[in-house]
User: Fold this.
Amino acid sequence: MIKTPDIIISALYIVAIVSIGLWAGLKKKKEASASNDYFLAGKSLRWPMIGMALFATNISCLHLVSLAQSGFDEGLLSGNFEWMAAFTLILLALFFAPFYIRSGVSTLPDFLEKRYNRACRDWLTFISIISAITIHIAFSLLTGGIVLETLLGIDMYTSVTVIAVITAIYTIIGGLRAVVVTESIQTIVLVTGAVIITIVCLHKMGGWDAMIATLQEHQQLHKLKMLRPSGDGSQLPWYAVFLGYPVLGIWYWCADQTIVQRVLGAKDENHARTGALFCGFIKILPLFIFILPGLLASTLAQKGLLDISAIQYVDAFGKPAVNSKGIYTLMITQLVPTGLVGIIIAALLSGLMSQVSGALNSISTLVSFDLYKRFKPAADEKELVRMGRISAGIALVLSILLLPLLNSYSSLFNGVNDIISHIAPPITCVFLFGIFWKKASAKAAQITLLVGSLLGAAVYTVNKLYPYTPLKEIPFLMMAFYLFVACCIIQVFFSLRYPMQHTAVSGTLYWKSPGEPLQDKGWKGPGNYKILSALLLLVMIVLYIIFK
Assistant:
């Protein structure tokens, strides 16, 4: 249980965030239309806000808790999900962001309708809403509830409901501007809290060299390796990382409404590109401030400096085991001094609230623009905003109802990526072909989305109902790659079978060549998107060489 000063710090933080969110959201620009201001912040966002908001929307309480769990169990391996994101953010900056900005779309389903047809738009809208409710909101609420129940002794569903309602207040009232302003603050708080617990763990351990010595003593130096061989039991061999992650990453960072909406609200193309690259540089940090503490916790436990008896148990075979879901809570309660605990809890709340607020805003945008306006095209600006607020409230209720089902995963982080691996392939496929291949046809995209999604759902269902089939032996990232290849074959075959008949609009919605988006000179000096892209690419290659 935490002490009174820490509770006060956490409570003051919540009050401050809600106040700032309401102030930012209600301070509307006169020249912006009601819906444009509410859903896209009046297209006024600058690159620092975009970069920090992208990071905050991506990093939630789920990441703080589950990445520490993966660090405790497997070392730095899950850092691939953070570092590989930098490569897809480069793709977002170079190819996708300028495309979306120039096309003037409000949502990504809107783009699919203009490039393909209405059926593709409807399908992506449905998938985007479901994934936002499940992946971005429900999993985050679940993780936050588990931690807050342990720390504060409050029933999980009670604490989750309270935090969800508080977040919904400024998100539903204030729109995207409130979300982005609060996310920028929350990114700073979240990173500060994570840095504090990393420093505390390193100090308790006696430094990096002491951790290395302990790993060597227990023959666990492999935990420092990012790229593992096949058959090491991790379900994440090196080839799966390089083949499978791009399928997930391109969907998540370049084609998911919840993430890309921050880019769509950019002031201009340069701010959109630089914001995405800024986020790519920030994504280097999670390995050191989210995953490394979990690895340090395992070495601290081995040296007797961290008591993990509270999460130890005897499994069905009579062998001792550890429920590592609770390792982050143990680190907070045993290693962090009073006062700093309040900041750590504020960081956890930041991750939870930013993820939920970002997803709620995206859901309200999708429902208003892609569903409600279709059936009621005469709807005025205020009506669209009102429907967006109602849909956000409904989505929040549905997310809370999903919590008992999602709690069955032993590793919440793996649970999220397992679901994404079966959702992403057809969406990644139709976006890539739609943007880069003139002949990608509407009929082919429609078939690819339908068949690919049904195929992914079928594989996921079989694995859950029959966990001992050969399919279960395939790493989930490789499953994503195989599903993607199948979707590509479907897309190409049916594009040739049913050739695309371009309209005046769709004929402009693809790059004529990969070099076309790079013709824009961008800003002068070190802020130029080409210089930043090359620098980020070089940094990531060097890091992978060091930690291979």
Q: What stands out?
A: The domain at 4-546 is CATH 1.20.1730.10 (Sodium/glucose cotransporter). The CA atoms of residues 88 and 249 lie 6 Å apart. The chain has one domain: 4-546.
